[in-house]
Write a structure and sequence with these properties.
alpha/beta, 234 residues, single chain, 11% strand, 4 helices, two-stranded parallel sheet, five-stranded mixed beta sheet, 36% helix, 7 strands
Length: 234
């Protein structure tokens, strides 16, 4: 092979190698570019999901009021809110449970004072919605501090209440409901966090089964005290 041919061969090989390197750089660029686009897309999707999730479970719509605790009465109470979120209440609290009939609000408010969340719904709410509501109530937070009952003339199909806080909802599937339960059940504004929402002194009947208890007319003999909730957790 002549010197000229050898030189030409070397130049040809170098051109082929250079072309191969350019091809590899283009391939790598395309791969990194595609990968970067996928990452950007994933970040965007995740960010969009998180933002939507945050909006869906936002508690900005919660209304709050202040009430003095420990206002025990024997009378029926006229409340400002529907359903009530605090104020005067009966000496006996309602046992935290799921009820299919209305309960006396005077007992329920006492349960709120002990840290309960009270979920109320319109009596004509469709059964599927009521069942979904009961499912959320049973699976979210602490069932021992959960009240569920129908309530007439609500300002919304569903209303969740705790002591001093209230949230109006249209659907049981609204993500604000479990967020409300988690935040306000035995929350920082609970007057008596951890006080029982059950026990022997709790009311277990609905409003149609039993009227508000009358005020005791005389003291029970020593050693056999009347079962008043005020003797322990109120």
């Amino acid at each position: 092979m002549t010197k000229e041919k050898a030189q030409a061969r070397r130049e040809h090989l170098e051109k082929m190698r250079a072309a191969q390197r350019r091809k590899e750089r283009r391939t790598a660029f395309l791969m990194w570019g595609a990968g970067g686009a996928v990452i950007v897309l994933l970040v965007g999707v995740v960010g969009f999901y998180l933002i939507n999730q945050s909006r869906a479970s936002s508690l900005d719509a919660v209304t709050s009021v202040k009430y003095e605790a420990g206002q025990h009465v024997w009378k029926a109470v006229s409340y400002k809110e529907t359903p009530p979120v605090g104020g005067e209440h009966n000496n006996y609290w309602q046992k935290c449970d799921i009820y299919d009939k209305p309960i006396h609000p005077e007992h329920a408010v006492h349960s709120l004072e002990h840290g309960a969340v009270w979920i109320t719904y319109r009596p004509d709410l469709p059964k599927a919605e009521v069942d979904a509501l009961k499912k959320v109530a049973s699976e979210t937070g602490n069932i021992e501090y959960m009240l569920v009952s129908p309530f007439a003339n609500l300002p919304a199909p569903i209303v969740a209440s705790s002591w001093g806080h209230q949230l109006k909802l249209d659907k049981a599937a609204d993500e604000k409901l479990p967020a409300f339960i988690k935040k306000y059940q035995n929350g920082k504004d609970t007057p008596e966090p951890g006080a029982t929402c059950g026990g022997a002194d709790a009311i277990t009947t609905t409003a149609d089964q039993q009227p508000l208890p009358p005020e005791p007319q005389q003291q029970q003999p020593t050693g056999s005290p009347a079962p008043t909730p005020s003797s322990s957790n109120q």
